Amino acid sequence: MKRNAFHILVFLLAVAGLSSCKEDDNTVEEYPDWQAKNEAYFNNLYKEAVSEAGTNPKVKVIRKWSLPETRKNPEDFIVVKVLKQGTGTQLPLYTDTALVHYQGRLLPSTTFPKGRIFDQSWTTTEFNPSTNAPRKFAISSVVDGFATALQNMKAGDRWLIYIPYQLGYGPKGNNGIPAYSTLVFDVTLAGSYHPKTTTKENKKKN
């Protein structure tokens, strides 16, 4: 009886192992070679943007707001494509609060050919400032790449912003955003204000 029980146990373990291997073979990896893919993508984007920025005002390469001019590595910068130029005249400060419309995506992955949307302020499929209220947050509370962009935008500007993972969520990721992710934001700055001051937008919210 003991020998029969032993053979049955070995058989069941073997079946379980085969089943497990089969399931693993069918598993789809959402973010294969993610670090290498993101680094290659952003480095190439940065190189093209640096070449184009001198003659095309709709392309910008902006160094992280707190870094000295001696820092010139691709990961020290964000890349911007200007979609619309606003009529504002004031640049927000790092200590300011911003009113922002935005949508954040990752680079294309296995089941998201356009990149997975991980956050957005829009309540409809397409951005419409008349039907979507901007979100309000302190510029100092967002990732370095996003904070850098906001401090260079004027009210009404709409930018497509590419942030390397070093200025985003880094090698650890955050809340479902994989490590080493380049962040792609479609951002419109609706307004901003200094601490202990108000704007028309702020008064409406209060």
Q: Could you give the topology of this structure?
A:
Layout: H1 2-26, H2 34-53, E1 59-63, E2 77-84, E3 97-105, E4 117-120, E5 135-138, H3 144-150, E6 158-163, E7 183-193, H4 200-205
Antiparallel strand pairs: 1-2, 2-6, 3-4, 3-5, 3-7, 6-7
Domain PPIase FKBP-type: 95-193
Protein name: Peptidyl-prolyl cis-trans isomerase
GO molecular function: peptidyl-prolyl cis-trans isomerase activity
Description:
This protein has 206 residues and is of the alpha+beta class. It has a single domain, classed as Chitinase A, domain 3, CATH 3.10.50.40. It is built from four helices and seven strands. It has helices at residues 2-26, 34-53, 144-150, 200-205; strands at residues 59-63, 77-84, 97-105, 117-120, 135-138, 158-163, 183-193. Strands 1, 2, 3, 4, 5, 6 and 7 form a seven-stranded antiparallel β-sheet that branches. The longest helix has 25 residues, at 2-26. The termini are far apart.
Shape: globular
**SS summary, helix count:** 4
Provide mean pLDDT, rounded. Answer: 87
For the record, give the distance between the C-alpha atoms at the N and C termini, rounded to a whole number.
Answer: 78 Å
The stretches of 5 or more residues where confidence is low (pLDDT under 50) are: 5-23, 200-206
Please, how many domains? 1
CATH architecture: Roll
**CATH class placement:** Alpha Beta
Strand content: 15-25%
Give me the Rg, rounded. Answer: 23 Å
Give the CATH topology. Answer: Chitinase A, domain 3
**How would a crystallographer describe the biggest sheet?**
7 strands, antiparallel
Number of separate strands? 7
Structural class: alpha+beta
What fraction, in percent, of the residue positions are helical? 25-40%
Order of helices and strands: HHEEEEEHEEH
